[in-house]
Fold this protein.
Amino acid sequence: MGFQLHFSKSCPKDESELNDQLFNETFNALKSTCESQEHGFFRLSENDQFIKRSTEIYNKHKNIKTFIHIGIGGSALGPKMLLDALQKNKRQFIFMDNIDSDTHWASLEGVNPADTLIYIVSKSGGTAETLANMALILHWLEKHGINKEEYKNHFIFATDPVKSELLDYAKETGIECLEVPSNVGGRYCVLSPVGILPALFADINVNELLKGAELVKKFILNSDKETNNFLRLALSIFEHYKKGYSQTVFMPYSSKLKSLSSWFIQLWAESLGKKENLNGKIKHVGLTPVAAVGATDQHSSLQLFQDGPKDKFLIMMEVENFEHDYSLENNLSIPTLKKLSPFTLNQLMKAEFMGTLKAFEDENIPFVHFALQNIDETTMGALILYLESLTVAVAHLLEINPFNQPGVEAAKRHAQEWMSAHCEN
Ligand code: PA5
């Protein structure tokens, strides 16, 4: 499946240590969620139409130089993560996932709208930040002499295929619209056209990406308790949570996987941070995700992970094979440099990673070690579905709904109210 898991000593080990009843209940609940029509995230990779429709659009626009991606939360983090990990070409991508005028100003400078495709992604079709960014892009196009009649040559939308203001506008104007399936929430939609279209423009092999997701399914829905590392991980995180380990550190040892951390933070935080449980009881549960990147953050947050409160479970991610490497061989008389001389940069990365795990073991800090063979499409596809399913499995254990975000909705509503109260017209 492109990666292997190794557990720290404090995680439940085998059949004898895993609670039978909890294993079976979680397995059955997860299986029924994955198979239900209500939730489509587990089956996105089975839908050929997503690649087909996205490829048609790609073929029409493949000569563009710049791809502007407008969306926020689940409508942006997944595609950005794919590109940062896998982009193969030099095409310019601009992600407008915040409403920061100064950043937009700098990003749009020198961009020629004639060579640009603008992808507006909003499942609901009504997110204020996304539509505000669309509004400023409309002014930018107008400034460059591109008017309404030409919008269909510059815009592609991705939105809910049943109910969305963007969908209505697309129908009116002939702008092409890709689907964010109604039964897949924003943070679970990267393997839909939301991620597939930008991936095509980045020369990412989307067939391999979805193949990776398909291949990992048998490891997730594996009913054999002895070999099911997936549920062993979910149960380890849950058992530690009950003992006060309420934070989950996500630490890949790769700069290319930094955005995977940002994507995971949203998935974990928005899915697991809930006020009510499934029976409507006020519980205030959640695991707080913390992003870090190795080896850089060994000189930053690692001190806290190592010696601070015993409340963290760490997901440590190693890349076994980088694409490139550098020799550290040298003949300078600087003692530390001399010691490095027999090694390569990748070997030093390995030493830093293994050294950190050893230090965690010595302090009995719980962790799981993901050993990724390399960073490629199949591994990324597998990892995405694995982490999404892990989130859902942990939600089952916590007895909460991982697919809603009532807190976010409340903030959106209050922002709208604020605007109505401050509207001068
Ligand atoms: O995961 C989610 O559902 C959210 O983070 C959404 O992706 C985010 O709020 C943006 O919503 P929309 O895609 O409807 O614009």
About this structure: The two ends are 57 Å apart (CA to CA). The pocket of 5-phosphoarabinonic acid is lined by residues 72-75, 122-124, 127, 130, 185-187, 270, 405, 408 (CB under 6 Å). Residues 377-398 form the longest helix (22 residues).
